[in-house]
Amino acid sequence: MTKQEVVFFWFRRDLRLEDNVGLFHALQSKYPVIPLFIFDETILERLPKNDPRVGFIHESLSKIHLKLQETASSLLVLKGKPELVWEALLQEYAIQEVVWNKDYEPNAMQRDAAVTDILQSNGVGVATYKDQVIFEKEEIVKSDGLPYTVYTPFKNKWLEKYKTIAPVIEYDASPYFSNFFKSKFDLLSLEEIGFVPSSIKVKPHNLKLVATYHETRDFPALDSTSYLSPHLRFGTVSVRKLVNWAVRKNDVFLSELIWREFFMQILYHFPKVQNKNFKSAYDGIQWRNDESDFKRWCEGRTGYPMVDAGMRQLNETGYMHNRVRMVVASFLCKHLLIEWQWGEAYFAEKLLDYEMASNVGNWQWAAGTGCDAAPYFRVFNPEIQQKKFDEKGIYIRQWVKEFDLGYDQPMVDHAMARDRAIATYKAGILK
Predict the structure, then answer these.
(1) For residue 256, which of 151, 172, 180, 372 sits 20 to 30 Å off, Cα-Cα?
(2) How far, in Å, CA of 115 to CA of 368, rounded?
(3) Where does the Photolyase/cryptochrome alpha/beta domain lie (predicted)?
(4) What's residue 64's pLDDT?
């Protein structure tokens, strides 16, 4: 029996049909296009069975599947190790080309290289496209070709280059939806993937709140953030649409999108930062790494209301306000002298918007060990942060129910912890 000649488009961190660069190009093919998503067992086996991010991915895939059914097509969803999945698909179809959007995390790049080898060794073409960032790899570098390691000059170069292409082209693939492979694939259920629904849900994003982002972003009680970050992480929104919008509406929000790309480029050029200090001079710091202290931090029982509110919000919802993230991260690294990798791993487990580049970048910023980081002697005072950004305790009372009933004493004195942190850093930084 003759195999069907097809092109595959492989969804990964781009779970949308709108303004999807790789999908747009795949649909230009003379062959019908099978849209595919692979639940990667190497990732799933590390997650709890009620992981809300898996539920969100499945929900997003369901929306794509329903939309494709309007074109007499459907989404092929498989589970397994990607290399083995592709080897099986090669047996079933006469695959002419496989198209996907690039991912820049070290593990993803290794996976993609392995899949590329399998496909090309079987005579299958591979085409990859830039989709999750405006500028990638070596597109924003210094005049000598070296990557930027300080944010402000990176941002200035980014803005300068953006002006030459503004507004960024958005890719409307809808006129080509008839090129999808006509199929009636059954969508795997969440249970068939091996997971169960979570009580924690990804919230819809709200761009209207971004217009006043610069005025309200530091005050957690206002709950005025856009909730865009998980949607950016999994690609249910287009970064091109967001940037073109932010350029017109809010410079501060645009700066946050540029920070995201800065950290992505740092991870790409310096992959060691995923688990090692960017500044190797900080490798000599003697961290306390007390497991009981870490447990209290994780559970939001430090005796510092803003720290505890942030950790409880994270544990209960998968979200934490950005200002509070800085406070809790600084507290772990400076007050408790626990290595940033411990906190980074806990955030990776809990955050709905977990993205390696930003998570590692921000944790190293808080610890002082990263590029363009806060200096080691900058130690946030949680009580001052509370007075400045939640003076009436509205945010704290939302998450720390016992706040007015005689709250726990702080587990560590701020002045002592600050002096200890500075002394430990001084003694540990390698000359």
Answers:
(1) 172
(2) 37
(3) 5-134
(4) 98
pLDDT for 321 equals 94
Query: Greatest CA separation found in the chain?
Result: 77
| pLDDT band per the 50, 70, 90 thresholds, residue 291 | very high
227 and 373, same domain (yes or no): no
Four-residue CA torsion sign, 237, 241, 247, 248:
negative
Which of 132, 160, 181 terminates a domain? The answer is 132
Q: Is residue 236 part of a domain?
A: yes
Q: Do the domain assignments include residue 199?
A: no
158 Cβ contact list (under 8 Å, min separation 6): 134, 135, 140, 258, 261
Mean of the per-residue pLDDT values for the chain? Answer: 95
Last residue of a domain, one of 269, 288, 313: 269
Amino acid at 71: T
Whether residue 184 lies inside any domain: the answer is no
pTM confidence score:
0.95
Given a cut of 80, is residue 374 above it in pLDDT?
A: no
**Do 146 and 235 have their domain in common?**
yes
| In a shared domain, residues 261 and 320 | no
Helix ranges (H only) for 100-238 are 106-121, 151-163, 190-193, 213-216, 229-234
Structural domain of residue 214, as residue ranges? 134-168+207-269
- Residue 346, classified by CB atoms within 10 Å of its CB into exposed (0-12), middle (13-18) or buried (19+), is middle
Q: Give the containing element (helix H, strand E) for 330.
A: helix 322-330
Instruction: Quote the CA–CA distance of 411 and 298 in Å, as a whole number.
Output: 13
Q: What is the DSSP string of 65-122?
A: HHHHHTTT---EEEEE-HHHHHHHHHHHSEEEEEEEE---SHHHHHHHHHHHHHHHHT
Same domain, 263 and 287: no
Supply the pLDDT for residue 209.
76
> What DSSP string runs through 254-309?
HHHHHHHHHHHHHHHH-GGGGTS-SSGGGGG------HHHHHHHHHT-SS-HHHHH
The residues near 45 (Cβ < 8 Å, ≥ 6 apart) are none
Tell me if 183 is assigned to some domain.
no
- Measured over the CA atoms of residue 188, residue 189, residue 193 and residue 198, the dihedral's sign is positive
Closest CA to 297 of 346, 262, 249: 346
- Mean pLDDT along residues 243-253: 91
